[in-house]
Structures are given as structure tokens and as C-alpha cells.
Amino acid sequence: MTHTTAKTVLISGASIAGPALAYWLHEYGFTPTVVERAPELRTGGYKVDIRGTAIEVCRRMGILDEIRTNSTDMDGGSYVDEAGRTIGEMPAEIFGGRVEGDDEIMRGELARIMYERTRDDVEYLFGDSIATLAEDADGVEVTFESGLRRRFDLVVGADGMHSHTRRLVFGDERQFKRHLGAYISIFTAPNHLGLERWETYHASPGRLTCVYSSAGETDAKNMFVFASPELSYDHRDVATQKRMLADASAGGRWEIPRLMRHAADADDFYFDSIALVEMDRWSKGRVVLLGDAAHCASPASGQGTGLALLGAYTLAGELAAAGGDHRVAFEAYERVMRPGVERNQKMAEGFVKELTVDRKWKIALRMFMVRTLPKTPWKNLIAKKIRDEIQAAARAVPVTEYGTLAHAA
Ligand SMILES: Cc1cc2nc3c(=O)[nH]c(=O)nc-3n(C[C@H](O)[C@H](O)[C@H](O)COP(=O)(O)OP(=O)(O)OC[C@H]3O[C@@H](n4cnc5c(N)ncnc54)[C@H](O)[C@@H]3O)c2cc1C
């Protein structure tokens, strides 16, 4: 193992991928700086899964116990009809928080854990953003929106599906983003249904609504998914996004009218296209992309967070192994990650159609299965088949060994 010193790396984005990379770079003797556009750590979002090899990365970061202490610990879920009557229940062992080999945590909690793990060793610049990047033979000259000017050896774009770094270096996101035919919105509202570690789904043609409350939460999280061709809007314009969700939910029954009133006031409102980011290359010169910025697999995959963690571990490890030679490291990082990323993206394409079933008769069939499946002797077989497919995809990116640096247990 070659240890590198004084290699400065600017990371754009302090969500999951950015702080995870900062952690590993610091471990290997690099000097990371993280710039985040938001004025403070963004804590919103839904529950996210950590499965397969990503669990090992968390163990090596020394955060697995804390993740498990903050688990959503979901008990299960049910489907309800328009009047809120239960159609069928699904225990957590089949879908939800207690699937073997699957850790589940709120995205905001995970972001907080990673930030707290790194904040003493890593420089964080909140409320700022890269304005310009100018690469020369031995570094990158960076100017920030704040007027700050700094020089770094490398720059990493870990700034999400709408990556600003990617736009600066690779061009318009329309070249890389492939809309999968649906939008997702998530926000917090009071727990009117009195749910405790339980999620409740309601499906109507082209729409799926889910309300849940996980361990330790007093409020409820609300998720809306709706089928739609690609819409044109500014992804920073939250008021327009709220209006688009209200339009798409018009005429909805069950809790939907009440939830729409809460959506209007929600201050953690999240709205985005369910889409993939597909690129031929994740790096150009001294700039490399990581996490959703490089290869968003969409929320439908349930693997975006795991891939971001694995990518951070791999990118830092390859940089250390190559003694800081970014050309060698960036190529190796892509070679290790790409097959697993593509497998998960393919799986997401299949799952997104299941989220927004388009016909009434198909929903009726789904509800028939929800009602009858838990009573059938082959319920475990079906659950196992689904679980096996997800777990195999979650193990598709290997945890490469990069040497004997202390891995926290
Ligand atoms: C607030 C929020 C809520 C989310 N909720 C969910 C969810 O409920 N379910 C789900 O599956 N996925 C959710 N995601 C996405 C999920 O976190 C990612 O799919 C996955 O974890 C990979 O993370 P990432 O770090 O690559 O990208 P992201 O999590 O998207 O993080 C990108 C980060 O870059 C920052 N950023 C953006 N532009 C700039 C800029 N110009 N300069 C500096 N920083 C910038 C963003 O503020 C953000 O902190 C959410 C993301 C965010 C930011």
C-alpha cells in the first residue's frame, strides 16, 4: 500500500457519497474539502436501504452499529382501499425493515451520521458552490460562488442526479439523464393515521401513495409516485414542484386531499424524476463523478445509497493504491463499479413499472394477491425469489481489499 500525503481533493456535495469519500480519503492520508450548496446539512428524505456489500463498507467505516441503532425497525405494511379499509398486510420479513441482509435507515439520519463521523477531520464549506473550474497540468483552479479562490489536485462531483460539477465539465444533463416515466415526491406531515413502525399504501391507476412512521418518529413520511412523461421545470423551483404534485394527485381519494394540504406547507419537500444517469465515462482529466452524479439508479432500485457508499470506498481505495495517480485510479474505479451499477440500473427499470400500475384491473389483481398471498403455503418461496434477486444485485459491486489500514470494527 502506498500512502499519499498532501493530495488535496475538492468534493462537491455533502449528502451520502461526498462525506463517505471524505472519510476514506482522510483515512488514506489525502486532504479532502467538501463544499455543499445548502447552508447546512440536508436532513430530509425517505428511508433508504443498505444491503449486500455496502453493509461491509459501513462496518469498515465504523458506523454500522450506529446505523442499526437508528434503524427504521419497520414492523410491516398494508394496502388500503379508497376508504382506508385494509386490503391485506405484509409482514416486515417479506417487505420492509426486517428483511435479512438489509439495513434500513432514514436518509437524513445516515447523512447526519456520516457528517458527524468526518466533521472533525474534514473541511466543510456550507452555503457555497463551485463557480468555475480551470484545469492545468498539475491541478485545478477553482472559484466559488462566494468569490473564494482555491487550488486542488482533484475535484469530485458528488452533487447528485442534477450534478452541477457534471454540467460544468461534461455538459447538459439531458445527454445523460433517462426519465423512467414517473415522478416521486416525499415530505413530512403530522401522523394522522397514528402509524407506529408501519407503512400504508394506496394504489390507483398510475399513482401510488405511501404513508409511514418509523421507529422513534412522531411525524409521518409521505411518498407519492405518479406516472408521467418528462415534465419541464426548474429543479430548484419548489413552488412549481408542489403545484405539479397537486395536479397529479387531483381527484385522489383516501388521505390524499389532506396530504396535499400538508404538502403545500412542507419545508422538507422532495420532488424528482425517477430517472437513470448513464454515462460512457465518469471522469475527465482531474475531475471525477461519484454516486448519483455518475450513475443514479433511481429510488426504484433501492440501491442508490449503497452504490454511493461503495463508490466512495472504491474511488478512495484506488487513489491510495495508485499513489495518487488519478489516471490509473479513475480507470480502476470505473472498472470495479460499472458492472454492478449497470445491473442495479437494469433492475430499477423493471421495478418502476410496478410502482405505477396503469390499469384498474391490474390493480385489482395486485390487491387480490396482497390479500391472498400471506395465507398461501408458497408465500415464503415468492418472497425468497424477490429477495434473492435484490440481494444478488446488492452484492454485484465487490468490496476490494486496499491494504491493511485500520478498519474500525
Ligand atoms: C434532501 C434529499 C432527500 C432525498 N430523499 C431520498 C429518498 O427519500 N429516497 C431516495 O431513494 N433517495 C433520496 N435522495 C437521494 C439519495 O440520497 C441518493 O440517491 C443516494 O443516497 C446517493 O447520494 P449522493 O450523495 O450521490 O447524491 P444526493 O443524495 O442527491 O446528494 C447530492 C448533494 O449535493 C448537493 N449539491 C447539489 N448541487 C450542489 C452544488 N452546486 N454545490 C454543492 N453541493 C451541491 C445537494 O444539496 C446534496 O446534498 C435524497 C437526496 C436529498 C439531497
Q: If you had to describe this structure to a student in words, what would you say it looks like?
A:
The chain has about 400 residues and is α/β, with parallel strands linked by helices. It has one domain (about 10-355, about 390-395): 3-Layer(bba) Sandwich (FAD/NAD(P)-binding domain), CATH 3.50.50. Helix content is about 35%, strand content about 25%. It has a 7-stranded mixed sheet with strand order 5-4-13-14-15-12-16, with helices on both faces. Strands 7-2-1-11-18-17 form a 6-stranded mixed sheet, sandwiched between helices. The radius of gyration is 21 Å and the shape is globular. Keywords: Monooxygenase, Oxidoreductase. This is FAD-dependent monooxygenase.
How would you concisely characterize the structure shown here?
The protein has helices spanning 17-27, 53-61, 64-69, 107-118, 164-170, 238-249, 256-265, 292-295, 304-321, 326-355, 360-372, 379-394, and strands at 8-12, 31-36, 47-51, 76-80, 86-91, 102-106, 123-126, 130-136, 139-144, 149-152, 154-157, 177-189, 198-204, 207-213, 220-227, 270-277, 283-284, 287-289. By secondary structure, the protein is an alpha/beta fold.
Keywords:
single chain, 409 residues, alpha/beta, FAD/NAD(P)-binding domain, six-stranded mixed beta sheet, 12 helices, oxidoreductase, FAD/NAD-bd_sf, FAD-bd, monooxygenase, FAD-dependent monooxygenase
